[in-house]
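Comment thread on ticket #2218

A.B. wrote:
> Attaching the input chain for the structure job we discussed in standup.
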Amino acid sequence: MLEYVDHEWGVVARRHSETLSQIKAVLAGGTAGCVAKTFVAPLSRVTVLMQVQSMRPHKFTDGKNPNNEHMTSSLRKIYREEGFTALWRGNTATLLHRFPYT
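C.D. wrote:
> Ran it. Output below, let me know if you need it in another format.
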């Protein structure tokens, strides 16, 4: 009888250990994905802004050519006009979306 009880506890302990390993893996993957997304967030923001500027030609300085044609000049413009933290605007929503998938 005692051997059977020890066997059952061993099975329960093994399952518990496997579950904890899976939870650790999910949390580690989600954290790594969020860190990576946060690192590239300024580039992603500039990419989106450059894509949508073509939909607003009336905002172009000369009416024909986009104001932001280069990544570095766009990054500088955001920093100058909106501040350093503006480079990560919208990142929280991205992280909430990204965490479960990484």
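A.B. wrote:
> Thanks. Noting for the ticket: The mean pLDDT is 82.
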